[in-house]
């Protein structure tokens, strides 16, 4: 097993060496459940899923932990904003608990549609308040905290390497930095560990603590939960690139101060932004799309997964519906090809097929080079010197990482045989109606087919019937 990963901390691609042989401990920052995840957020989770699948395929036993932030993540990601769930609750008239439950379920629905393997441990911040309090007490005992204005702060001046992940310089971190000045802070980059006093007085989620009734800061949550499930030193920490300068920087500061372990995490892996015409896709800008919107437009969630596979996780990826259409067409062509291959029986790989296998998994094990791996896959499928049985065996193994559910594709000979003649006739009538530009009749037939248990998808190769 020789896997290479780009480490944000060293700014180099390094050979992955686990702390414990054959085991991987991995923590990924999960969603803040105050709204639907947008497709830019989901790109990060697809990258983390590729990493999980690649490590597992290489033979590692992966312990994958992901948090659910249901308290403490403030607007603006700093210490001066309002709790995002609290704000959302006031806007909707619902309780923060109902908001968290609703959007947590929505997030996992999206992940399921995208065929993302659920982490072995999913931990909610609100279930780990005592763990956070205990960690703050440890930091307090070691002299890294102070209380000011009713809040408990971490003092970055008590450590000598703050900002190393992002390459920040301490002499540039004084007042006037791009953050709102908090007069309670000794240094503007100090950050809150526990709030008892905020300018927003109607915080719904609060707990007793040695410092008063309040709630945790965002950064302490991930440090407490990752340490609880993975220990004081673990292999990989993942997240989006936007977490580097503040959230992950502060996690490192408090975790290394509390544990004395340097490095606290051996490999930091970050996914790049998804862009739209106006730049980074984000909720704060209001310019974002959700997976359910794509699905309502007739796309399969796996079309979006394929689209994400077409770009390297460390490169910005520009989203457009034209690009998504290309991904949809490619995935549907792949499904059709696999259906044809399933008329054959899987067979052992010969020399040429083994070469393709080595190239594909070599690309994935070289910092998750998914675009290169896809190119190898298509070359293999077009190579007449590789038998259909070999192709089937290899494509199904490749899909253990790609996650496109190719194992669920039915053999072509079976795909249409079970479809009643009446359904096929209606599908043909709909196609004729569309050609005649009688779209009202075409839509009427589509609805009739749906009532009969079938959906019709328009593809570059023509309409395809699928069971609901």
Tags for this model:
Cysteine--tRNA ligase, Rossmann fold, alpha/beta, single chain, 5-stranded parallel beta sheet, cytoplasm, 42% helix, aminoacyl-trna synthetase, Isoleucyl-tRNA Synthetase, Domain 1, 468 residues, metal-binding, 4-stranded antiparallel beta sheet, 3 domains
Question: What report would you give on this structure?
Answer:
With 468 residues, the protein is an alpha/beta fold. It folds into three domains: 16-271, 3-Layer(aba) Sandwich (Rossmann fold); 276-414, Isoleucyl-tRNA Synthetase, Domain 1 (Orthogonal Bundle); 419-467. Helix content is 42%, strand content 16%. The protein has 15 helices and 16 strands. A five-stranded parallel β-sheet has the order 5-4-3-10-11, sandwiched between helices. Strand 1 and strand 2 (12-15) form a beta hairpin. Helix 11 packs antiparallel against helix 12 (388-402). The radius of gyration is 25 Å and the shape is globular. The model is unreliable at 173-179 (pLDDT under 50). Its cofactor is Zn(2+). Monomer. A motif ('HIGH' region) lies at residues 31-41.
CATH class of the largest domain: Alpha Beta
Proper CATH architecture of the largest domain: 3-Layer(aba) Sandwich
The CATH homology group name of the largest domain: HUPs
How many structural domains? 3
CATH topology of the largest domain: Rossmann fold
SS-based class: alpha/beta
Strand order of the largest sheet: 5-4-3-10-11
What form results from the Cα inertia axes? globular
- State Rg: 25 Å
Could you give a short account of the major beta sheet? 5 strands, parallel
Number of contiguous helices: 15
- Helix content range of the residues, please? 40-55%
Count of strand segments:
16
Query: Beta-strand level of the residues, as a percent range?
Result: 15-25%
Mean pLDDT: 91
Instruction: Give the quaternary arrangement of the chains.
Output: single chain
